[in-house]
Amino acid sequence: MALEIVKTEENGNSSDRDTLFMLGGVALVVFGAGLILTNPNIRKYMGQLGVGDVLSKVVPDVERYFKLRSM
What we know:
This protein has helices spanning 2-11, 14-37, 40-49, 51-70. It is mostly helical.
């Protein structure tokens, strides 16, 4: 098994494989979050916390950060 990993790194295929694993992990996180948010109790708690208000306050800061980073 270790020899197979070394051989794929020598051939340059490891970055493709790592990207595939990363995207698979992101897909699982998004799918899991979707399953959690379909629960009516969780949606009720999220509504009480005011997540939409927090998000609307954070967006201008994120935009400002990207502007500074692009300079």
